[in-house]
Amino acid sequence: MSESPSQPAQRRTALDALHRTLGATMTDFAGWDMPLRYASEREEHQAVRTRAGLFDLSHMGEITVTGPQAGEVLDYALVGHLSALAVGRARYTMICAADGGIVDDLIVYRLGDQEFMVVANASNAQVVLDAVTGRAARFDAAVRDDRDAYALLAVQGPESPGILKSLTDADLDGLKYYAGLPGTVAGVPALIARTGYTGEDGFELFVAPADAERLWQALTGAGADKGLVPCGLSCRDTLRLEAGMPLYGHELTTALTPFDAGLGRVVKFDKPGDFVGREALTAAAEKAAATPPRKLVGLVAQGRRVPRAGYPVTDASGAVVGEVTSGAPSPTLGVPIAMAYVDAALAAPGSAGVAVDIRGAQEPHEVVALPFYKRER
Amino acid sequence: MSINPEQLRYSKEHEWLSAPEAGVATVGITSHAADALGDVVFVQLPEVGATVSAGETCGELESTKSVSDLYSPVSGEVTEVNQDVVDDPSLVNSAPFEGGWLFKVRESAEGADLLTAAEYDAFIAG
């Protein structure tokens, strides 16, 4: 077998050899060869819900913005008000095109007065890097591609604070959700962030790739008697789906504005200065208020067949009233669930007659509010 | 060193077919297929009494990531379906060649291009 010259070689994380030793089933994800699951993805999912799971997320794309106008760059380039972010805090935000379309959803960490780290989805990292670099041109700030500077490990689940505490002196109790601080974990310098994509408490640890395996082994050891298991991208997807979190390419695309996605709150019109997309997003906000677009809702299957991305949503007459964007059997609920964009008239929880066309058969579904799952605090 | 039992025959759609006993053969999916699917959460099997045709779809398997059609490796009448696997689809993952069998068929004709275990080994190593 020879590789096609137009097909770039798959990228491998610093933990690649370890994943193979652990017997992971690997999958291509945005050009990266990533663990899909190690054993049963449903057991990995339950481990994160009830105990703890360890993920390699090194495919995520880090971009660092530094300089006296670093905050202004991000205020202009993104839709959020990042210059107002306190040092040590993180924010969920988006980058939009001039027409208001979503280029990517992002988490931005303020690491210092003049230093921010933008974390983009692997599939969009280059596009985001290019856009931020271009949009930074007239500012006194530097944009740095740090994709190869970090490995990213996530420890997620109710046991994750205890596991991490045993390996660090950092003040985890003082570390709020969506905050990050530099520290040392198992002797490894790390940016410790209390963020995640699972609907559970948890941490994301940005470290040098050379330190990744040492950190993974230390976390595995510290978590052994707390039921921590290695987890792949398959359970990450069902965890985020249950938690009602959007995934770029599914719930979020360049064809949608943040208002279309029900996430208009991330657009901060009252921030200082102009920003890319302001005009289009102003119009999109007005349009969304006047004529509600299709709404992102939850669907719970009444049968056992699984609604998948791209399947049509229909009303009682069989007319298409929406489309599934993500769907999977929910390990927590025990039934198939989905997120879908549905006409506003049928988007209310309990709307009658809503079905998903599953390969030609109208399968009844209940419309529910998102999320499907919310942890107890 | 094959994990694919010697006495079975295999389709390129990753079903296995037992040697018929009194004209009735058993159908399942291979462990290779089960591993590729991941956790199977729902199986839809043909009805008892239905006629299945070799190489044609006769059901589906839902897993976390995808849905897959089930192809019959044999033509004939379905005499029995495995209610245990309907109730607990994880048997497809845990025991694909044993407790995870799917249905039984009174054979009228087998698929034309079924593989031996050795041939199937080579096919999946492909």
From TrEMBL, chain A:
Keyword line: Aminotransferase, Methyltransferase, Transferase
GO biological process, one term: methylation
Residues annotated as domain GCVT N-terminal: 17-271
Enzyme class: transferase
Any single Gene Ontology cellular-component annotation: cytosol
Catalysed transformations (reactions): N(6)-[(R)-S(8)-aminomethyldihydrolipoyl]-L-lysyl-[protein] + (6S)-5,6,7,8-tetrahydrofolate = N(6)-[(R)-dihydrolipoyl]-L-lysyl-[protein] + (6R)-5,10-methylene-5,6,7,8-tetrahydrofolate + NH4(+)
A Pfam entry, by short name: GCV_T_C
Boundaries of every Aminomethyltransferase C-terminal domain copy: 294-374
Known partners and oligomeric status: The glycine cleavage system is composed of four proteins: P, T, L and H.
HAMAP family registered for this protein in UniProt: GcvT
NCBIfam families: gcvT, PRK00389.1
Function: The glycine cleavage system catalyzes the degradation of glycine.
Record family assignment: Belongs to the GcvT family.
Protein name: Aminomethyltransferase
Taxonomic source organism: Actinacidiphila rubida
Lineage of source species: Bacteria, Bacillati, Actinomycetota, Actinomycetes, Kitasatosporales
Automatic annotation (TrEMBL), chain B:
Entry keyword set: Lipoyl
Details of cofactor binding: Binds 1 lipoyl cofactor covalently.
One Pfam match: GCV_H
SUPFAM superfamilies reported in the protein's UniProt record: Single hybrid motif
Gene Ontology CC, one term: glycine cleavage complex
N6-lipoyllysine: residues bearing it: K65
Span of domain Lipoyl-binding: 24-106
Cofactor(s) of this protein: (R)-lipoate
InterPro entries: 2-oxoA_DH_lipoyl-BS, Biotin_lipoyl, GCV_H, GCV_H/Fam206, GCV_H_sub, Single_hybrid_motif
GO biological process, one term: protein lipoylation
Subunit structure, as described in the record: The glycine cleavage system is composed of four proteins: P, T, L and H.
NCBIfam families cross-referenced by the UniProt entry: gcvH (TIGR00527), PRK01202.1 (NF002270)
Family under the similarity heading: Belongs to the GcvH family.
Cited function: The glycine cleavage system catalyzes the degradation of glycine. The H protein shuttles the methylamine group of glycine from the P protein to the T protein.
Name of the molecule in the record: Glycine cleavage system H protein
Provenance organism: Actinacidiphila rubida
Gene encoding the protein: gcvH
